[in-house]
Fold this sequence. Notes:
By secondary structure, the protein is of the alpha/beta class. The protein folds into two domains: 2-124, Rossmann fold; 132-322, Dihydrodipicolinate Reductase, domain 2. The protein is 34% helix and 29% strand. The strands form three sheets. Strands 7, 8, 9, 10, 11, 12, 15, 16 and 18 form a nine-stranded mixed β-sheet that branches. The chain has a seven-stranded parallel β-sheet with strand order 3-2-1-4-5-6-17, with helices on both faces. It has a two-stranded antiparallel ribbon with strand order 13-14. β10 and β11 form a beta hairpin.
Amino acid sequence: MKALVIGAGMMGSALAYDLAHSDGVKKVVLADIDFDRAKNSADSIGINVEPKKLDVNYYDDVVSMMEQVEVVCGATSYNHNLLLTKAAVESRKHFCDLGGNMDVVYKQMEFDEKAKAADVLIVPNCGLAPGLAAILGAGGAKHFDVVDEIHLRVGGLPQHPIPLLNYQIVFSVEGLINEYLEPAEVIRKGKTQKVKSMYELEELEFPPPFGKVEAFNTSGGVSTLPKMFRGRVKELDYKTIRYKGHCEKFKTLLDLGFASSEPIMVGKSVRTAREIFQELFRKKLPTNGPDVTLMRVWIRGTKNKVQRTLSYEMIDYFDEKTKISSMMRTTSFPSSVIAQMIVNGTIKERGVLPPEQCVPVEPLISELKKRNINISETLA
Length: 380
């Protein structure tokens, strides 16, 4: 198998690493607009990775590079995913991406018939949340005769939090602020609705050393679950996990307009408060400390007329051996596994399907366990 990874940032590098170290993958092409970044990443991985320069704005170049492999993984901005989907269909290659914006995902899904005609599978939203959490939610629901509730809770955190926000940058600042600002889609009392992000604060408890943490509404993490389960469940939601106190402090900054898109004059240039806020965030918050990812997904329903709760839980740490962060591992490794599952025939569907609609839970959990990403399952 030969794979192409587009984007050599944190997530793309981790994706290429996992593919390169997987049985059956003979070669990984790691492409980026910045060749030096691709080369440095390829050199650090050390085996089976060939760096290439690629500007995704040159469509013919994208198609040409896709034609040389069996499967393509997108790890660049979600703004490119629609173009990459079109190129994958034209080149007749399977394609996975890390998603991040539901408007883009729904536009990708409009290529469903063309993808089927090309005999390929396009899988958007293959990251952590959206991605892994939604796969567990949808897969877990299959264990019940009647499903009442699906709840997803995920958070990437520093192992050693530093006040005031008790947070470090574990993925793009733009993506983080977008999750905090955009409305969250939920199902409440059986009806789909939009609710404000950074509201509905709740308390969760994880084993030591974490103890009590908080979770609040954020956008994007449910992927297509609200459409899948509309009319079938009473409650469905996604919330982001943070250390206690984070929500109140960050929400205060947003309420004061620090992430506003309103233009302001800075010297002789026009900027937005959000652009300045993002720059300050990058300068002031740590980026390289050891991180941890917490995830809890639970589904409540009825099986054989008995009320049960099925729970999945994951606590994943920074990998000291490979120096790959937990957020990189838990976001990128599922996409690598899904890409391989498509090529080896574990996933047989064709068209455009988010992972919660086509990825089998048990094989995914098994493959992640081989990578020391352990997801426990409890039925009570």
